[in-house]
User: Fold this.
Amino acid sequence: MIFTLGYIPFVLIVYHYFGVSIAGLLLAGAGTVLVALSWITHQPLKNFVSPVIAAVLGIGAYFSGSFTALKLYPLILSLLFLTYFIASVVTKRYPLIAWVEKFKKRSLSEQEYHDMIVSHWFWIGVLAFNSLIHLYLVMNSDTVFWALYSFAGWYLYFGLAMVLQLSFAHREQIFQWSRTIWGYGLFGGVIVMGFIPAIVGYTYNRLMKKPKPHIFFQRVTAAMFRLFFRAAPGVGRIEIIGSSNCNPNVTTLYVASHESWLDYPLMGAYITDLYHLTNKKDAFSWSIRGIAKLLGVIDGAGSNALHALLQKLREGSNVLIFPEGSRETQAVLLPFKKGAFSLSIESGVAIVPVIISGTRFLVPKGATHWQDIKNSTITIQFLEPITPAQGERAEALKNRVWDVMNVAQKNHNG
Assistant:
């Protein structure tokens, strides 16, 4: 390897000061010495290849007086590697498989084995193109370009090829990170894009002392959320079922199934003047707590948070609660907690059950990255409103709503 790296500067310097014949003679001598040393030290046969080629080319340059003979060295090496890879494909003795298995210290999987076979064809193409470049430079009289490519250019070329090879081998991880970066980047981007008009409208409504100035902020954000879901990775379409049960002029307590963190912006994309809880106290830092408040997030949990939601219902705002208390992963409805149903009884506000389906395929519980899925349909099904009966207890109302939603969930799963 050291001899190969030193070949170009050695040949150029000697040729510049002493001419082709002396350069050929010294190269033949250096090659012969290296062959002898390799023989004495019992080096493997592959270590003889480079100095033998150099010695032969040096002799040819000495007798012909042509610098072209010296320019053949990189071309011959490239052709030898090309021949080696072609032979490995023909004989099905793939060196890359052996190298990778040695590096990973295990046998390759079926997919990895197939990828390595494809990689051999890739390197045949890379070496063939490299040989054509060297052939062109040998035939061209410009020594500078030959020297630049032969000394450094083809290492950059092979470095780029190696990057492509590694990208192919790790394409699943790369695609996964690309989807994830696109998903979170898009979400952050639409929020930033909508922030200025949203905050300007909110400030104006606040100064004009209009009731519920936060509604304008949520309407702008809702438009941004709809834009997000139209362009989010993996989303094919959004299907709304029973939209007539979602009346913007009627105060409603929405009780929804829960599959992913995406359920929050999904509901916020279609319902405004909406409030909901976080699952823990002090969930937001001071820097974004104000924005979260405008989005209707009530920071905290327990009786105080439920009391805050009760006040919002009495003020005529909508409330969203995920009564399962956790995200489910198998489209099976989990047992409900009683908080939402106590709110309905105390406020007298009807419950609209909502079945959300499809978001778990994008970013399921426990995952931080977007899943490899295409054209997924996200469904929001608004069921008919359920009004608490006279004297009905929260436990009974909870069971009644769970039964209705469970049937709808099973029907949807089909």
The chain is about 65% helix and 10% strand. Residues 333 and 407 are 10 Å apart (CA to CA). Strands lie at 235-241, 253-256, 274-277, 297-298, 318-321, 351-357, 376-382.
